[in-house]
């Protein structure tokens, strides 16, 4: 039998496979989300995210130092606040001496070259648990009225030392409002990684447990995208680009690889993928039960993001992946 095409020749051993390999994941591709709480020496495990914990400021700095040492260039910070600091206007979000701002300053001081990404949305500060302001009579999530506080939040984070602002609120026009406010306050070098195509997803469950930030009433479907749509993601990408975003993000990750591939095609901006809490928990849970080989599934999943076109990945696996990479390399 004369077979001219034998694709298996390129797979004949690991050395050959490594030569023809198109995509791989390195620690440089990763952004590690971290949850900060008040106190000192505090570590609170998150039940629905095995191996992940909320950390007090001092431990966050240690965790970031370890990530930096492993080659991870960026952390994305989220605050878990006690209920008494939450109100309907999210006032605490702009407190220059708030937990969040203090943590940003501590990180910047300890690790000046590491990138700090910060989150702009009202939910961790809001007694309503929504990303924008809520009309108390109708329950409507107010768009234009929310832009001012979101922009102020971004400026407050930039002042504290944030390198990358990540608006995750999905209000219309927020990238423009944030860009303008940052520039007016002299932060023209602060980047915006917009949560461009953020879907109303049930994969965020463990994250909302971590921050105790679930909506008190209703859901987020009037601002986060309908998971049935992909054309709409293109539209959001065009707007965010026009409004001044530096990087576009797709969230969640694994069930949305088609959206990542599409945005990579239509945009000249770098594309980020958010491998969200539920995706992490599924793999951890199955591997704890011995149903999946967790480490291998992790590498396969993260590589799939690169193959789809993601330039960077926010993932709770950042440290596991970076450790594995460094142990294989050395
Ligand atoms: C909130 C926010 C959420 C996540 C990041 N920022 C949750 C939500 O929109 O309810 C989810 C991240 C994850 O699940 O890992 N603005």
Can you characterise this structure?
The longest helix is centred in the middle third of the chain and has 17 residues. The chain is about 40% helix and about 15% strand. The protein starts with 13 loop residues before the first helix and ends with a helix. The protein has eleven helices and twelve strands. It has a single domain, classed as TIM Barrel (Alpha-Beta Barrel), CATH 3.20.20.70. Bound molecules: ligand PBG. Ligand PBG binds next to helix 6.
As a percent range, the share of strand residues is 15-25%
In one word, what is the shape? globular
Tally of DSSP helical segments: 11
CATH class: Alpha Beta
Low-confidence stretches: none
The computed structural class is alpha/beta
Number of strands: 12
Small ligands present? ligand PBG
> Main beta sheet: strand number and arrangement?
8 strands, parallel, barrel
Measured distance between first and last alpha carbons: 44 Å
The CATH superfamily label reads Aldolase class I
| CATH fold title | TIM Barrel
In the CATH classification, which architecture applies? Alpha-Beta Barrel
Read across the widest sheet, the strand sequence of neighbours is 1-4-5-8-9-10-11-12
**How much is the radius of gyration in Å?**
20 Å
Task: Give, in order, the helices and strands.
Answer: HEEEHEHEEEHEHEHHEHEHHEH
Count of structural domains:
1
Mean pLDDT: 96
Residue share in helix: 25-40%
């Amino acid at each position: 039998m004369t077979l001219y095409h034998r694709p298996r020749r390129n797979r004949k051993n690991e050395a050959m496979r490594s030569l023809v390999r198109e995509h791989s994941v390195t620690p440089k591709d990763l952004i590690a989300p971290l949850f900060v709480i008040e106190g000192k020496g505090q570590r609170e495990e998150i039940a629905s995210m095995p191996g992940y914990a909320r950390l007090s400021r001092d431990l966050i700095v240690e965790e970031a130092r370890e990530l930096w040492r492993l080659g991870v260039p960026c952390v994305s910070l989220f605050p878990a606040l006690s209920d008494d600091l939450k109100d309907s206007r999210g006032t605490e979000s702009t407190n220059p001496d708030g937990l969040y701002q203090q943590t940003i300053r501590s990180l910047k001081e300890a690790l000046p070259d590491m990138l700090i990404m910060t989150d702009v949305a009202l939910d961790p500060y809001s007694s309503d648990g929504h990303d924008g302001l809520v009309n108390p009579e109708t329950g409507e999530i107010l768009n234009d009225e929310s832009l001012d506080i979101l922009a102020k939040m971004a400026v407050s984070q930039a002042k504290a030392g944030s390198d990358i602002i990540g608006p995750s609120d999905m209000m219309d026009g927020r990238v423009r409002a944030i860009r303008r406010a940052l520039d007016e306050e002299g932060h023209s070098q602060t980047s915006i990684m917009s949560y461009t195509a953020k879907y109303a997803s049930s994969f965020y469950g463990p994250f909302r447990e971590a921050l105790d930030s679930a909506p008190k009433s209703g859901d987020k479907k009037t601002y986060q995208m309908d998971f049935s749509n992909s054309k709409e993601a293109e539209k959001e990408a065009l707007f965010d680009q026009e409004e001044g975003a530096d990087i576009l993000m797709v969230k969640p990750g694994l069930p949305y690889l088609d959206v990542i591939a599409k945005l990579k095609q239509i945009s000249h901006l770098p594309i980020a993928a958010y491998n969200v809490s539920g995706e992490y928990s599924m793999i951890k849970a199955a591997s704890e039960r011995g149903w999946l080989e967790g480490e291998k599934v992790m590498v396969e999943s993260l590589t799939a993001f690169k193959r789809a076109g993601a330039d960077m990945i926010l993932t709770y696996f950042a440290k596991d992946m970076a450790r594995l990479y460094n142990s294989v390399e050395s």
